[in-house]
């Protein structure tokens, strides 16, 4: 029952995350236009970073309220590989990942229902812009970087939560910008599956090789690297006085 409840929490949070993703770009353009800085790339990146910070904070609160729900399968795998989720198992992830993928489809469908036609025409989700192997490597490297940044910021970074969120937003926006010319990028298999499903390429090898296997390998390597090389040492045990 615990696994089913966790999967339901993941599904709800993932659908909300995927649904809100396209609005980041829309709000960035609207705000940049209002401020008259739409022609300045760094201004757009700064606005996006602020919006991502607010979004990550909001979803962190909602995820905690849902009992530690996750909107990204690679985040769950990262913490599992790093040994930071003692109650997690491969069996639980085998249940939660399909729930997140289905929720990705629901999130994309909901987005396309509410957006006007002229905006929907510009939305395609992650798309491969290089050859298959380069794309898989790119998604793996980008996810490794994002997962490692997440672990370092949370467990070795500043104590102030707002600064942590800002650093996570900077890392996310920076990696998305770097990966734009390769795979979109996604760094979230559930999000990629949602867009692949509505665009009818969810049965392709490209989806699973580039947008599932690549990120999963990157997340696992990041978790292992942190676990064996970078994890903080446990506090010394206090010996009982005789």
From TrEMBL:
<protein>
    <submittedName>
        <fullName>Major intrinsic protein</fullName>
    </submittedName>
</protein>
<keyword id="KW-1133">Transmembrane helix</keyword>
<feature type="transmembrane region" description="Helical">
    <location>
        <begin position="162"/>
        <end position="180"/>
    </location>
</feature>
<keyword id="KW-0812">Transmembrane</keyword>
<dbReference type="InterPro" id="IPR023271">
    <property type="entry name" value="Aquaporin-like"/>
</dbReference>
<dbReference type="GO" id="GO:0016020">
    <property type="term" value="C:membrane"/>
</dbReference>
<dbReference type="GO" id="GO:0015250">
    <property type="term" value="F:water channel activity"/>
</dbReference>
<keyword id="KW-0677">Repeat</keyword>
<feature type="transmembrane region" description="Helical">
    <location>
        <begin position="209"/>
        <end position="230"/>
    </location>
</feature>
<dbReference type="InterPro" id="IPR000425">
    <property type="entry name" value="MIP"/>
</dbReference>
<feature type="transmembrane region" description="Helical">
    <location>
        <begin position="6"/>
        <end position="28"/>
    </location>
</feature>
<feature type="transmembrane region" description="Helical">
    <location>
        <begin position="136"/>
        <end position="155"/>
    </location>
</feature>
<dbReference type="InterPro" id="IPR044222">
    <property type="entry name" value="SIP1-1/2-like"/>
</dbReference>
<feature type="transmembrane region" description="Helical">
    <location>
        <begin position="40"/>
        <end position="62"/>
    </location>
</feature>
<keyword id="KW-0472">Membrane</keyword>
<dbReference type="Pfam" id="PF00230">
    <property type="entry name" value="MIP"/>
</dbReference>
<comment type="similarity">
    <text>Belongs to the MIP/aquaporin (TC 1.A.8) family. SIP (TC 1.A.8.10) subfamily.</text>
</comment>
<keyword id="KW-0813">Transport</keyword>
């Amino acid at each position: 029952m615990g696994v089913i409840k966790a999967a339901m929490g993941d599904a709800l949070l993932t659908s909300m995350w995927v649904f809100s993703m396209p609005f980041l770009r829309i709000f960035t353009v609207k705000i940049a236009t209002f401020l008259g800085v739409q022609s300045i790339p760094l201004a757009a990146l700064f606005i996006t970073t602020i919006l991502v910070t607010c979004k990550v904070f909001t979803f962190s609160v909602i995820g905690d309220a849902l009992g530690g729900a996750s909107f990204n399968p690679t985040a769950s795998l990262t913490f599992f590989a790093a040994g930071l989720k003692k109650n997690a198992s491969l069996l639980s992830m085998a249940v939660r990942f399909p729930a997140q993928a289905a929720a990705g489809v629901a999130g994309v469908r909901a987005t396309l229902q509410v957006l006007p036609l002229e905006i929907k025409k510009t939305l395609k989700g992650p798309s491969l812009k290089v050859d298959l192997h380069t794309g898989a490597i790119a998604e793996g490297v980008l996810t490794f970087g994002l997962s490692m940044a997440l672990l370092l910021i949370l467990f070795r970074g500043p104590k102030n939560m707002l600064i942590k969120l800002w650093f996570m937003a900077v890392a996310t926006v920076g990696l998305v910008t770097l990966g734009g010319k390769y795979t979109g990028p996604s760094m979230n298999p559930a999000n990629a599956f949602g867009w692949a499903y509505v665009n009818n390429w969810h049965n392709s090898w490209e989806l699973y090789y580039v947008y599932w296997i690549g990120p999963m390998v990157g997340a696992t390597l990041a978790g292992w690297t942190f676990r064996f090389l970078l994890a903080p040492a446990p506090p010394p045990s206090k010996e009982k006085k005789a």
